[in-house]
Design goal:
The chain is mainly alpha-helical. The chain is 62% helix and 2% strand. A hairpin with a 3-residue loop joins β1 and β2.
Length: 237
C-alpha cells in the first residue's frame, strides 16, 4: 500500500490524544487542530487512492463529518476514522496485503467467497447476520436464564446498552468512556436496522463498491466486539 505511514501515525496520534481527553465531548476542538487533522486526512486519502479506494473515499468524506458546529466531535465518525487509520498502520506491516487482510476473519469467512463470486448483496447481508448471531450468543452467555433471546437492533441495545450494558467496550466511568459505549451501541443497532438485509429493499442497488464499504464497516464493528469481549473478560466458548 502506497502511503506515508508516518503521516498516518501522526494523524492517528492526534485523534487518540483528543479521545483520551476526558472533556473532549464537552469542549470544542481548537480550529487550528481541526484544520491540521482535515489536511492530514486529505493527504492520506490521496496517498491511498489507487491502492485502497474504499478507505480513501471514506477518509475524505469523514474529514467534513468528524466535527460539527464550532468544533464539537461527532463520536461515531471520530471512532470510525480512528479504526481506519489503525487498519492502515496494520496493513503497512503486511507487504502485498489486499483489502481482505484488513477484514475481520469472521466476516471474511462468511462473505469473501460470495463477494468474489459477484453476490454482493448476499455478501453484505451475511456479514451483518454474522454480527447479529454473535451478539445473540453473547446475550445467552451472560444471561443464560433468559426466556427470550433478543434479535437485531434490540439485541444490540440490550447487550451494549449505554446505561446498563451486559458487555462493555471500555471504562464507562469517564465521559469519554460513556460516549464510546453509546456510540458503538448506536452504530451496531443502526447497522441491524439499515444494513442487515439489503436485499429486502427493492429500491437499493448493492454495487461492488457499496458491498465492500459495508463489509469494512461490519469488520470494524466485529473488531470492536472483540475488544469488548476482552475488556469484559467474557469467554465466548
Amino acid at each position: 500500500m502506497i502511503v506515508d505511514i508516518n503521516r498516518v501515525r501522526t494523524v492517528y496520534g492526534w485523534l487518540i490524544n483528543i479521545a483520551n481527553n476526558p472533556n473532549c465531548m464537552t469542549f470544542p476542538v481548537a480550529l487550528p487542530d481541526i484544520q491540521s487533522i482535515k489536511n492530514g486526512l486529505i493527504k492520506i486519502s490521496h496517498d491511498i487512492e489507487k491502492e485502497s479506494p474504499y478507505f480513501s473515499q471514506e477518509l475524505f468524506e469523514m474529514k467534513d463529518r468528524m466535527f460539527v458546529g464550532y468544533g464539537t466531535i461527532n463520536p461515531v465518525v471520530f471512532g470510525q476514522a480512528i479504526e481506519i487509520l489503525k487498519s492502515l498502520q496494520q496493513a503497512d506491516n503486511t507487504k502485498g496485503s489486499g483489502v481482505w487482510d484488513l477484514i475481520h476473519p469472521k466476516i471474511a469467512l462468511v462473505s469473501q467467497k460470495l463477494f468474489e463470486d459477484g453476490h454482493y448483496a448476499n455478501a453484505a447481508e451475511d456479514a451483518f447476520v454474522e454480527i447479529n448471531d454473535r451478539v445473540k450468543k453473547l446475550f445467552m452467555k451472560v444471561n443464560p436464564t433468559a426466556s427470550k433471546i433478543p434479535d437485531g437492533h434490540t439485541a444490540m441495545n440490550m447487550v451494549f446498552s449505554d446505561n446498563a450494558p451486559l458487555v462493555e467496550f471500555c471504562d464507562r466511568s469517564t465521559e469519554t468512556g460513556s460516549n464510546i459505549q453509546k456510540g458503538y451501541m448506536q452504530m451496531l443497532a443502526g447497522a441491524m436496522s439499515a444494513l442487515r438485509n439489503p436485499k429486502a429493499h427493492a429500491n437499493i442497488t448493492i454495487t461492488k463498491d457499496d458491498a465492500m464499504r459495508r463489509l469494512m464497516f461490519a469488520s470494524m464493528l466485529m473488531y470492536k466486539i472483540d475488544e469488548a469481549i476482552d475488556y469484559s473478560e467474557i469467554q465466548e466458548r
